[in-house]
């Protein structure tokens, strides 16, 4: 199993350096990015030579507000250059606010774990005291609580009641809903009365399959979003990202058909995994989490078919696979079948 210091997916360069081949020969299943990228019409290239238009940005945020079903008028939404940038910005911003309130000691942050490890890295860089817990009630009392719902990599999605309960026992709550576009439970951001101390993150690139645009959204109380706009400054996202996302948010028929396709493919992958002797631990219609007796050995096996996956140092029997596109499903099926025959 190969990892970098922060153990991210999307590290296909590592696979190429060990197993060889070119990028276009590999199927990268190490991320949770939709393999069906939104088929946008290329915007006018003037968008590359001009600063982003304010009216276009406002239109994008209005469409995003509708898409994410934000009905509470006291909450606002802001476009940012990816959910990762939002995390990197919010952690020091909130640490500063908490330090101002309690300057005598480091602020405390509790992360519902295991989850996306950038939260730990970014919070520790601020000097906050960071703890991990797998129990919701252990988040109570922390000045900042962090929850990913649906969670990456387990796919667990908390109910609105549980999230409300956490929010009522902490000063700030970061709720990461990067994988909430294709779920059976309504996301917390769609609640009519979300807690005022909740800050909700959305990823555009994962569901729309356009991670390279680097686009995400922060949802929160109006005064907090106003402060965030002031902190980040003008032109938070590119003109190209604005124009392409406006197209994508407006295409409801694509949303519905893509959700159906992702569910079908995720079910197909689960069937293959179980037939090969693996267990389904969880996931979402954007990625699946399986249990293998030796996940690193299974990752190596998949690599022989130029299929790249994601392992976890803290769980040596876990392996996560993104959803394989139909064109690559036959070789994934062959890899599962051959593993079963070993």
Short description:
The chain has helices at 12-19, 46-49, 54-67, 83-101, 118-125, 160-167, 204-208, 222-232, 239-249, 252-275, 295-303, 329-341, and strands at residues 27-28, 75-80, 108-112, 129-133, 144-148, 172-176, 198-203, 216-221, 279-284, 287-291, 307-308, 310-312, 315-322. By secondary structure, the protein is of the alpha/beta class.
Which terms would index this structure?
alpha/beta; globular; 2 domains; 7-stranded mixed sheet; 13 strands; 39% helix; Aspartate Aminotransferase, domain 1; 342 residues
If you had to describe this structure to a student in words, what would you say it looks like?
By secondary structure, the protein is α/β, with parallel strands linked by helices. It has 2 domains: 12-37 and 253-341, Alpha-Beta Complex (Aspartate Aminotransferase, domain 1), CATH 3.90.1150.10; 46-250, 3-Layer(aba) Sandwich (Aspartate Aminotransferase, domain 2). 39% of the residues lie in helices and 19% in strands. It has 12 helices and 13 strands. A 7-stranded mixed β-sheet has the order 2-8-7-6-5-3-4, sandwiched between helices. It has a 4-stranded antiparallel β-sheet with strand order 9-10-13-12, with helices on one face. It has a two-stranded parallel sheet with strand order 1-11. Helix 5 (118-125) links the parallel strand 3 (108-112) and strand 4. Helix 3 runs parallel beside helix 9 and helix 4 (83-101) packs parallel to helix 5. The longest helix is centred in the last third of the chain and has 24 residues, at 252-275. The chain is globular. The model is unreliable at 1-5 (pLDDT under 50).
């Amino acid at each position: 199993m190969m990892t970098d210091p922060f153990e991210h997916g999307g590290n296909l360069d590592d696979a190429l350096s060990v197993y060889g081949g070119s990028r276009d020969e590999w199927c990268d299943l190490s991320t949770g990015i939709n393999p069906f990228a939104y088929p946008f019409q290329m915007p006018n290239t003037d968008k590359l030579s001009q600063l982003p238009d304010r009216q276009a940005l406002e239109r994008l945020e209005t469409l995003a507000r509708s898409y994410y079903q934000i009905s509470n008028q006291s909450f606002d939404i802001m476009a940012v250059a990816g959910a990762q940038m939002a995390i990197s910005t919010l952690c020091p911003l909130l640490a500063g606010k908490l330090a101002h309130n309690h300057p005598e000691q480091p602020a405390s942050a509790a992360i519902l774990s295991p989850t996306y490890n950038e939260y730990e890295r970014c919070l520790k860089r601020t000097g906050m005291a960071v703890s991990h817990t797998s129990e919701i009630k252990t988040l109570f009392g922390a000045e900042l609580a962090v929850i990913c719902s649906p969670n990456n990599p387990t796919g667990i999605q908390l109910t609105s009641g549980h999230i409300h309960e956490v929010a009522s026992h902490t000063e700030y709550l970061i709720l990461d809903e990067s994988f909430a576009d294709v779920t059976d439970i309504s996301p917390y951001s769609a609640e009519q009365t979300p807690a005022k101390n909740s800050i909700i993150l959305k990823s555009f690139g994962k569901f729309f399959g356009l991670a390279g645009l680097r686009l995400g959204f922060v949802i929160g109380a109006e005064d907090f979003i106003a402060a965030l706009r002031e902190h980040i400054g003008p032109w938070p996202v590119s003109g190209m990202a604005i124009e392409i996302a406006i197209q994508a948010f407006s295409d409801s028929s694509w949303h519905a058909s893509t959700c159906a396709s992702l569910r079908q493919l995720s079910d197909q992958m689960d069937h293959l995994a179980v037939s090969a002797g693996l267990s389904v631990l969880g996931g979402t219609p954007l990625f699946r989490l399986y249990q293998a007796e030796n996940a690193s050995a299974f990752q190596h096996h998949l690599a022989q078919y130029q299929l790249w996956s994601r392992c976890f140092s803290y769980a040596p029997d876990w392996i996560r696979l993104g959803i394989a596109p139909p064109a690559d499903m036959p070789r994934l099926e062959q890899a599962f079948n051959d593993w079963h025959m070993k």
